[in-house]
Hints:
The complex is a heterodimer. Chain A has 11 helices and 27 strands. Chain A is 23% helix and 27% strand. The longest helix of chain A is centred in the N-terminal third of the chain and has 10 residues, at 39-48. Chain A folds into 2 domains: 5-230, Spore Coat Polysaccharide Biosynthesis Protein SpsA, Chain A (Alpha-Beta Complex), CATH 3.90.550; 248-337, UDP N-Acetylglucosamine Acyltransferase, domain 1 (3 Solenoid). Chain A is of the alpha/beta class. The mean pLDDT of chain A is 93. The N and C termini of chain A lie far apart (60 Å). A 7-stranded mixed sheet of chain A has the order 5-4-1-6-9-8-10. In chain A, strands 12-15-18-21-24-27 form a 6-stranded parallel sheet. A 5-stranded parallel sheet of chain A has the order 13-16-19-22-25, with no helix packed on it. Chain B is α/β, with parallel strands linked by helices. Chain B contains 9 helices and 31 strands. Chain B has helices spanning 39-49, 63-70, 103-108, 111-115, 135-144, 199-211, 219-229, 249-258, 371-374; strands at residues 6-11, 32-33, 37-38, 54-58, 84-88, 91-92, 97-98, 121-126, 129-131, 149-155, 165-169, 175-180, 189-198, 234-238, 243-245, 285-287, 292-294, 296-298, 303-304, 307-309, 312-313, 318-319, 324-326, 329-330, 335-336, 341-343, 345-347, 352-353, 357-359, 367-368, 382-383. In chain B, the strands form 8 sheets. Chain B has a 7-stranded mixed sheet. Chain B has a 6-stranded mixed sheet with strand order 17-20-23-26-29-31, with no helix packed on it. Chain B has a 5-stranded parallel sheet with strand order 16-19-22-25-28, with no helix packed on it. The model of chain B is unreliable at 377-384 (pLDDT under 50). The interface between A and B is large, with 36 and 38 residues. β12 of chain A pairs antiparallel with β18 (296-298) of chain B, so a sheet runs across the interface.
Amino acid sequence: MKRKLLGIIDATSYQEDLEDLLIHRSLAALPFSGRYRVIDFVLSSMVNSGIRSVAIFPKMQYRSLMDHLGSGKNWDLNRKRDGLFFFPSPIVDNHENRIGSFDLFAANMDYFYRSTQEYAIISNCYTIFNMDFKPLLESHIHSECDITEVHLKDGGSMELYLVKTSFLIELIKSRHLTGYTCMRDVVRDPQSYYQVCHYLYDGFSVMIDSIQTYFQTSMNLLQPEVWKKLFLKEQPILTKVKDEPPTKYIKGSSVKNSMIANGCQICGTVENSIIARGVIIGKGAVVRNSIIMQKCVIEEDCYLDSVIADKDVKVEAGVHLSGTVQAPLVVRKGTKQGALMNS
Amino acid sequence: MEKKKCVAMLLAGGKGSRLNVLTRDLAKPAVPFGGKYRIIDFTLSNCSNSGIDTVGVLTQYQPLLLNSYIGIGSTWDLDRKNGGVTVLPPYSESSEVKWYTGTASAIYQNLNYLRQYQPDYVLILSGDHIYKMNYETMLEYHIEKRADVSISVIEVPWIEASRFGIMNTNEELRITEFEEKPANPKSNLASMGIYIFSWNILKEYLEMDARNPDSSHDFGKDVLPLLLEQKKKLFAYPFKGYWKDVGTVQSLWEANMDLLKEDCELDLFDSSWKIYSVNPNQPPQYISPNASVSESLINEGCTIEGEIDHSVLFQGVDVGKGSLIKDSVIMPDSIIGEDCYIEKAIVPCDVTIPDGTVIRSLEDEIILVTNDMLSGLKPTVKQS
Lengths: 343, 384
């Protein structure tokens, strides 16, 4: 496998609908499920499938993504040969979501020329899934197709493509002749000269493209039958290690139906919520149906319902904040919610 | 090799026989503690946080797990180009295999390791204790006192002083006498097993001790008394803060319970002095709609469907519906079935407790659950 497959992650994607959460970060670095970033899912799937060379094509606001991935050590990708590669995009104004833009790849052709892996998998960066790519590769080799596109069981494309690396190089080189700008163009052209196969994936998979899907997918993970499909013991989702202590439940705390990451100190009540690493929930505070990101401080006697609190948010004592399940209230990163502002 | 001002030698070969089954397959420093750590994490993190980047770890008893756990030391930021962590097992010479017969012989046999770094000072540590300490401050004290040896001491309750190695000092804290477990202690300053030696003194006295056929080659029993006899300058370095020897099932349980206090002296949440440990890569813990958790420490990867009261749960523990865990420590990956009752117990790693099991002490003693017990061999466990 390690000689066979290249991993290519297009991390240039942006979703207008997630704007409030993407001011300081790219979509790939969006925190998810208490301790992860959305890119962890595809990256871990690749590493767990034996991929040893991963190229990431990030775009602006990639500081938080670079900080998260570092040398690739947490994914065992800090290697002498192969490993993790970054190719920041020189194209600034491209806001279209074209997964695997050939222009982007063309700017870094040497990577494709130098790689010895025979096949390449091209993926978006915002799908929450945990997939073993080995059967996909086998199916692709067996079918002798030019392109294998992964589809969900209900038919939608997962924007995940498997091709021969040499074929990808041809597609990139001939992009001006063919008019194809990205993988999607190739597979969607009914007149295409190439043979496209579909591979059906029936595991858990959601593309995060709006606040609603983000919120709903997060909440769905509170059902054990759902999270058991995503968090598999043999295929762990790897992420940046924070060295937080275990979570401390202090006298008087009450926690029900919630996912809690490490390093939290909980005095209050938490229900149907996802609490990320290092969050403090004060005495008498109530947090319901909410997503509280890393290092937030919810002070005493607050009441939060259907809220997404981005990283480092401080909610001062006694403040009430609520949204609805359809339209959760998003509190931007690093802001302070004071009692005065709210009255 | 680059010269180092101070090199640490961590004695991690202890068997810890009083920990019973917990140390059957692993050395005492590798015993799990505090919901996510192993005992040795505290000493290694202290080294890293104190700016000591060269640490020799002396292993002997059941070293497999400890060796792979330490790895190249990257967890504690001790994977360095110069120095870093080096595991030092006993080795054979042309004539014989030299086991480490005592703490002093373990260091003596690795003098060549120390010589590589030409250190000015050597910090000798044991991997058996739970505490946070800045060794750099102790080194400054050692230098300021122009000491030959500095020994870190902690005030223990007078009533317990006869259980420790006690240092009698003058008013400048110069050690005048050392008594191992004295019946009538003259002081309550107990040795914490942390020594800083000036390199020349260490070398000289270890060589002297090695030539003595009557010596048991132990720092406390042989080397320190010899240094005192020869009027060397030994100073006590008073340490204030949390320190606990977790050598018995009872003390290991107590130290875990200490972490649950609201004003716990050992602050695991202090980000300026983090305790590092190897990350198990598990998802966040899941607390079910019917669960209840109070006054507890719970690590990632746990699934809680029962009631957890005043307990410490390590990563990957599952607690089934209707079960109650009270005043207990559940080590990694153990599965507690449904409708169990566990009180004042330590459940080791990878143990499966069947549905409906009741584990509670008839006396006021901590139960260490073993697989033998679970198959009904011991009367302390009542299975309903």
